[in-house]
Write a structure and sequence with these properties.
Helix content is 31%, strand content 31%. The chain is of the alpha+beta class.
Length: 151
């Protein structure tokens, strides 16, 4: 399989740019899927990182998969959240302060079918990697459910 990471990085950058420039009107829904923008802080650099992620709704929570396209390395955004679980997300035009956590095994058992239904390639990703792909739960932070402008 050829290395297309540069192409994925280009698509991600374009998606992030259009999503932010349109205040979430373009890029929130694409190809029958829902995307949010995750705003987190780099664990090594301390720099702001904004990552578009496919998500599914679960009540008042948002569920994302730490798949990294089935790579044996965890995605950087998940490593950043493990180090600093408080983050902000943009869902369409709305912004929320969230706290991230890995789903407990029983939660993950219920959530994985929802993730796979939203994006069938997750099943292939799970087969491709030796690591456990986490179901990541983004929950509104207790003190402030809506955040200010993430920048």
């Amino acid at each position: 399989m050829p290395n297309i990471r540069w192409l994925l990085a280009l698509i991600t950058a374009a998606h992030r740019l259009v999503y932010r420039a349109s205040a979430g009107r373009i890029g929130h829904r694409a190809g029958g899927k829902q995307f949010l923008l995750l705003r987190s802080v780099g664990r090594k650099t301390g720099l702001l990182r904004i990552t578009p992620l496919l998500y599914v709704d679960d009540g008042d929570r948002w569920i994302v998969a730490g798949s990294n396209a089935g790579n044996d390395r965890s995605p950087a955004w998940w490593l950043n959240l493990e180090a600093r679980p408080d983050a902000d997300i943009q869902v369409g035009a709305r912004r929320f302060a969230v706290r991230a956590r890995k789903a407990a095994p029983e939660e993950s058992e219920r959530l994985w079918p929802l993730l796979e239904a939203s994006y069938p390639h997750y099943l292939k990703y799970r087969e491709r990697t030796q690591r456990e792909i986490p179901s990541v739960i983004l929950e509104p932070r207790p003190s402030d459910s809506e955040a200010g402008d993430p920048g």
